[in-house]
Design goal:
The structure is a homodimer. Chain A is mainly beta. The first copy, chain A, has helices spanning about 145-150, 175-180, 185-195, and strands at about 15, 20, 40-45, 65-70, 80-85, 95, 110-120, 125-130, 140-145, 170, 210-215, 215-225, 225-235.
Amino acid sequence: MTDLPPTSEAAPWQMQPIALLRSPYREKFGIPRQPGLVDVTSHVDMVAGYDDPAMVEGLEGFSHLWLTFVFHACAEQGWRSRVRPPRLGGNTRVGVLASRAPFRPNHLGLSAVQLVDIDTRGGVRLTVLGADLLDGTPILDIKPYVPYADAIADAAGGFAPTPPTPLEVGFLPAAAAALQGRAELEMLIVQVLSQDPRPTYQAGEVGREYGMALADVDLRFRIHGGRVEVIGIAPRA
Amino acid sequence: MTDLPPTSEAAPWQMQPIALLRSPYREKFGIPRQPGLVDVTSHVDMVAGYDDPAMVEGLEGFSHLWLTFVFHACAEQGWRSRVRPPRLGGNTRVGVLASRAPFRPNHLGLSAVQLVDIDTRGGVRLTVLGADLLDGTPILDIKPYVPYADAIADAAGGFAPTPPTPLEVGFLPAAAAALQGRAELEMLIVQVLSQDPRPTYQAGEVGREYGMALADVDLRFRIHGGRVEVIGIAPRA
């Protein structure tokens, strides 16, 4: 506070994306607000200059990774001192640094993901579970999850001590028909919608119809009480 | 791998330090290689433009924080595809992304720290435990530790499944005398030296004397077997 640092230490740093994330999330709407709640499969594709298989040698011994990424789709909107976390119903404001909200200085995000596969044929592609990030998210760093330093079981979780309660998800007949032979897509839809994708300020609106682009389809759905009803599923244009 | 991203997503991002860390670590030598092993008290001083108390409202409900920082003292030396982790004796190389080494692309670091105090009189200063970082480290982000998403108790820890075994630390009479009435400094020295600060390629060298600047003193010490012997403690010039 006194004893302010030399400006050199507070000078900006230029960060180069080392990988891009590939996921079924085509728009911000619908992405769970906390990582690890949905087991969506994503790919981390190392970009040119960072695609040397030597860089990931030994990574296969770790079950989980940290991804440090940029909330790139929010960067243009800048940051705020206070945000309204969904976990507080969207009405109570907290400091942005007391949240994991994307509208933060530097727009940095952090997700622990499960490492499923490492493919080094023709570049480097990691397959991960639980990275609930927009398709195309720039990854700035990948680190092993080191349980003895990172897993603090007795940490106090402030206003988010437990995961949110998932909603039930059902399909109207037309939607169910569109899922014939697509078990994986059905699982993805159920997982994503059970996390209640509505903006919290609309959570009280009954019967409103929502649309969402997910993987290769467009969804239409409604939410009443604790239940999501999928009305339609159409191939995306 | 195929299907390469538009270059815009892989364009560089400019990151502005929002805070600077103040710690007793005056040089890289001696800093524990994994965060959280030593309970050193540090201060996170928000820099001008990010020192609005509103930004940390609600943070007091969380016991632990994530600090995302830059290994600024290593940035000039660039990065390597493979590194030799101390945990593997310094002889075996692994991919840099399978390590937490500082010589990584973007030089980003990540530490879980315990939040001890928030002082918003005349700026914002957080007091934290376990941030084993060089004095002056630029902090790019501060996030609450959310146990249900971040604490993965059953994660597999690769080549670093457990914390390293600490060394015993003893003081020769002259060093012990210099610690009269400085219990806190003594505790700091014991914690830091017990983590074996030697570069691993020298771990076999018996009787070699090392020097280290820590807090306001210069230390001299030797290591034989599992024991560190502090030879001298002098006020720093």
